[in-house]
């Protein structure tokens, strides 16, 4: 009789223990699923998505009249005292990655609580851009130190204000510069506008344009944004056609210092 009673008691205790485990596990899972994403989480997601080697090869192969196969290479460079991430960005033709025509620092941080956005992405000129060529391709011990990077952040160029994309859209974050854009004097422009979208799988869409005082677009692609995707696997035919494309020197000079890819 005693043995049966002990057995029943142990079974009940084990049942209670298992139920408790299920309840605790369920509570922890629910907490994880319902945990709100913080402002800094959004900034980290955007910064991580921007980083890496990306190409516009797919877009260029579909519409070669309007888009080139460009390489965008981006990597972390420093962190500011307030936690903002400083990212080095360079863009070059696929065939000549060692000769970037555009170099920038991006500073990524959360929007303030008062603003109707989630993440700010500001672009800055580099004090001595030549010193930073192929920054991301170098071993870390051959790059400028983070404190040197911060000291080389020069003129503020633009700021894009990103919001989380609505449910059902392809993008994760999207945004643009304010309505009036930012001052820009390149190639007859008086101001410029930029758009940025972060998609899944670290795909990034960028669109930069310059306008004169009358609102006429004087530089930048007119058809739509460049679509940069993580390094594609190129077929032999793609590689052969790309190796035989060499942009004329006059074109390279025209776009030097600005993302100007169409008249």
UniProtKB/TrEMBL annotation:
Domain of life from the UniProt record: Eukaryota
Keyword Nucleotide-binding tagged: no
Keyword Heme listed: no
InterPro entries assigned to the protein according to its UniProt record, in alphabetical order: CpcT/CpeT, CpcT/CpeT_sf
MF term (GO), any: lyase activity
Keywords, comma-separated and alphabetical: Lyase
Positions in coiled-coil regions: none
Similarity remark: Belongs to the CpcT/CpeT biliprotein lyase family.
Name this protein carries in UniProt: Chromophore lyase CRL, chloroplastic
Species assigned in the record: Papaver atlanticum
